[in-house]
Amino acid sequence: MSYSDKVLDHYSNPRNVGSLDKSSSEVGTGLVGAPECGDVMKLQIKVNPQTNVIEDAKFKTFGCGSAIASSSLATEWVKGKTVDEALQIKNTEIVKELSLPPVKIHCSVLAEDAIRAAIHDWKKKQAPVDELARAEAR
Amino acid sequence: MSIQTSNSSGTTANGAPFRHLNGDGVRDYFAFFRLPRKLDLDLAQLEREFHQQSRKLHPDLFTQSSAEQQEWSMEQSSRLNDAYRTLRDPIRRTQYLLRLEGLELEEQSETATEQVRASGQAKKQIVPEDLLEEVFELNMQWEELRMNKKTGDSDPALVRELEGQKVSLEQKQEALLEELKSYWVEWDALGDTSPLEARNRVTAKMADLLNRRSYIRNLVRDVNAALEN
């Protein structure tokens, strides 16, 4: 299988590789994985508490080129967006941007899941525990 | 779907030995061996049944038959082999049963992601968080090992650690198989008349376990590769 140019670009030149301080209240961490291929993806966001804008994003992915490219692109896209805007990102947009073939669609799903998991983690840190429980019960 | 074929196949005896196998392409592998859909299989019985059927279906027996019959014998033989290979293996057998029960082991469910996108809830991950943490940490170490190798550094302590991990991962894989067997017993105790929720509860547990196991299997493969290179 051949990768698209954009996948190759992100793969050989991944943006925003690294990590942020997991314990910071401004940082949300998403760790997701796909059992079948063994991929594991960590995506972190740093959110401005006043504006809810994602000011920084980092990732580290162990997996195939498409998984790395999807998460690299995801960090590029979330940066500068508010948390709510970032939640609008769809995996299909990643598929389109990277021209992922059908067998690699799950990589884009993983990247969207990572964004959501990171935001969820950040939200958990913001809301007092009981408030979150109520939100989840709703 | 039914598993009534287990007792409707009395025609094997003589004259038309395979008629009961013919024409029905959708019969599942369990029915193929006249077995109920149970997981704790008697492997010796499975093997006997396999040999018996192989002998009857072997294409060599059909060299004098019509082209149609020859083709049928080829198809049935290959299906028999698939069925045997699937049922003989504990993991593949379980996966197969789950599929029959309508449960697909998804890679990364797009549908589930679409649902949480609409609802704003957190998506339930297939793999438990602590296992993911472990996988991530192991990958970090392996990356370090690969980097060391590239620069010509050798780090005996790191290699020793990897060897230790290999052992512990293999043990984990063994333990998962034992856990799976305990679910087999639960499943086999249920009958066709058991409530759907009870059946679904057990199949969900098995699916969850197989997903965890896939991860461990990949890790064992990767740690072996890291040690060999």
Topology, please?
The complex is a heterodimer of chains A (138) and B (229).
Chain A: H1 5-12, E1 27-34, E2 39-47, E3 54-62, H2 65-78, H3 83-86, H4 91-98, H5 105-126, H6 129-137
Antiparallel strand pairs in A: 1-2, 2-3
Chain B: H1 29-32, H2 43-57, H3 67-88, H4 90-100, H5 110-119, H6 129-150, H7 156-189, H8 196-228
Describe this structure in words.
- The complex is a heterodimer of chains A (138) and B (229).
- By secondary structure, chain A is of the alpha+beta class.
- Chain A is built from six helices and three strands.
- A three-stranded antiparallel β-sheet of chain A has the order 1-2-3.
- In chain A, strand 2 and strand 3 (54-62) form a beta hairpin.
- Chain B has 229 residues and is mainly alpha-helical.
- Chain B has helices at residues 29-32, 43-57, 67-88, 90-100, 110-119, 129-150, 156-189, 196-228.
- In chain B, helix 4 packs antiparallel against helix 8 (196-228), helix 6 (129-150) runs parallel beside helix 8 and helix 7 (156-189) runs antiparallel to helix 8 (196-228).
- At the A-B interface, strand 1 and helix 5 of A face helix 5, helix 6 and helix 8 of B.
Distance between the termini of chain A: 45 Å
What distance lies between the first and last C-alpha atoms of chain B, to the nearest angstrom? 50 Å
User: Which regions of chain B contain 5 or more consecutive residues with pLDDT less than 50?
Assistant: 1-25
- Specify the overall morphology of chain A: globular
Uncertain residue ranges of chain A: none
What's the architecture of chain A in CATH terms? Alpha-Beta Complex
Mean pLDDT of chain B: 80
Tell how many strands the DSSP assignment of chain B holds: 0
Helical run tally of chain B: 8
Give average pLDDT of chain A, whole number: 90
Assembly state (oligomeric): heterodimer
Highest-level CATH class of chain A: Alpha Beta
Q: Strand-residue fraction of chain A?
A: 15-25%
**What class do helices, strands and sheet pairing of chain B give?**
mainly alpha
The number of E-state strands of chain A comes to 3
Determine the fraction of residues in helical runs of chain B and give it as a percent range. Answer: 55-70%
Q: What would you report as the Rg of chain A, rounded to the nearest angstrom?
A: 15 Å
How big a fraction of the residues of chain B is strand?
under 5%
Largest sheet of chain B: none
The largest inter-chain interface, given as chain pair and residues per side, is: A-B, 26 and 31 residues
